[in-house]
Amino acid sequence: MITRAEMPRMRRGCVLARGAVPVTWEPLSSPGRPGPSLTTCAAFLLLATGCALRVRHGLVAELRRSREIAGATQQVLLRPLPGRMDGLALAAAQLSASRGAAVGGDLYEAVATAYGVRVLIGDVRGHGLPALGAAAAVLGSFREAAHDEPEPAGVLRRMERSLERHLRERARAEPPSVPPQRPRSPVAEEFVTVLLLQIAADGSVEALNCGHPWPYRFDPAPATAPPGPRAHTVRPLAGGETLPPLGVLPLPADLRSLPCGEIGPGEVLVLYTDGAEDARDRRGRFFPLRGVLARAPAPTPARLVAGVHAALLRHTRGRLTDDVTLLVLRNDRGDRGERP
């Protein structure tokens, strides 16, 4: 039997079992040993609060640096287009499907050259960070080749070679595959859809299309039309044959750009990636891009891009499954003069 005198000793320590480690504990306070004072508790709380604030400030600073890097990446990869270029009014913007990302797998560019304004829009398979390398390879090649190559076919071939080099370098950097049960490398299935347009000084358009949606074109409103909202006539730009996306099959040996008619004064071209028309609402209905464009009230390119993006976000409730890019240009050349 345990006597009353042995109870304090039992409280202070006990042996768990044969071969076990003795575990002792001391009460926080006892009649002869007072517990922590209020000052000690306050000091401990202040120390813990200071550590938490320091960690929080560090995380906020890291987030700010990440946003700065993302903004710099966007400026280099998808640099803002000028509002005007050789008599054309321009605007472009991208919505990324990756949460918090400023850029994704879509790409666009427009440059004024001695051969006309050359416009590029494309879509890398996938979205987010894995697609940035392929987009950078294609864009970098286009920006150089657009000034050097007299024919659009030469520009497209340079872009194809640049993408092939990028994919080879990525494949070398990957760990060796384990046959035969391991699936093929994602690099082997990477490709880029591309639409390349050349708009001459007289408004004539030539195109090379590698698996990309054809743009929509607005007819200019008649000069005698009454003021106020009215539906535009929106139809796809007639482009003819479509080639496979870059990275799927080699380009044909007899590659030539195709004539697509003209863009007259006041006419508008809307280039887009397939994420726009593939976007669905909660009921599974596709986004009616053509209908939204037809109801756009006398848009400037910048307002048209913003309006379509707003309608797209309302349609999907902000839940995009693919990147969406729009590039709008309007022909302000001709007898109508420069528009605002």
Report the CATH superfamily. Answer: PPM-type phosphatase domain
Strand content: 15-25%
Number of strands: 13
Give the count of helical stretches. 7
Radius of gyration: 31 Å
Uncertain regions spanning at least 5 consecutive residues: 7-28, 335-340
Estimated structural class: alpha+beta
CATH class: Alpha Beta
pLDDT averaged residue by residue: 79
Could you say how many structural domains there are in total? 1
CATH architecture: 4-Layer Sandwich
**CATH topology value:** Phosphatase 2c, domain 1
- List SSEs in N-to-C order: HEEHEEEEHHEEEEEEHHHE
Task: Specify the biggest β-sheet.
Answer: 6 strands, antiparallel
Beginning-to-end CA distance, first to last residue: 102 Å
Envelope shape: globular
Strand ordering within the main sheet: 3-4-13-12-9-10
Residue share in helix:
25-40%
Description:
The protein is α+β, with helices and mostly antiparallel strands and 340 residues long. It has a single domain, classed as 4-Layer Sandwich (Phosphatase 2c, domain 1), CATH 3.60.40.10. It is 33% helix and 21% strand. It is built from 7 helices and 13 strands. The protein has helices spanning 7-12, 38-77, 132-148, 152-173, 275-278, 289-294, 301-316; strands at 13-14, 23-24, 84-85, 88-95, 106-113, 116-124, 192-199, 204-210, 216-218, 234-236, 258-262, 268-272, 324-331. It has a 6-stranded antiparallel beta sheet. Strands 5-6-7-8-11 form a 5-stranded antiparallel beta sheet, with helices on one face. The chain has a two-stranded antiparallel ribbon with strand order 1-2. Strand 5 and strand 6 form a beta hairpin. The longest helix has 40 residues, at 38-77. The protein is globular, with a radius of gyration of 31 Å. The chain starts with 6 loop residues before the first helix and ends in a 9-residue tail after the last strand.
